[in-house]
Amino acid sequence: MLGSHEAHELNELLLSCTNSIQSMGLFLEQAQDPELRNMISSHFSVHVQDYNMKVEFVSRSMSRDQLNVPQLNLNANMAVEPINVQPIQPEVKLMKLDDRAIATSYLLTLKRAGREYAWSAFETTTPQLRAFLEDAFRMCSHQSFEVWQFMARRGWYPVIQAPSSTIQTLQQTYQQVPYHQAPYQQPATQNVLQNGYQ
Question: How far apart are CA 153 and CA 85, in angstroms?
Answer without folding.
Answer: 9
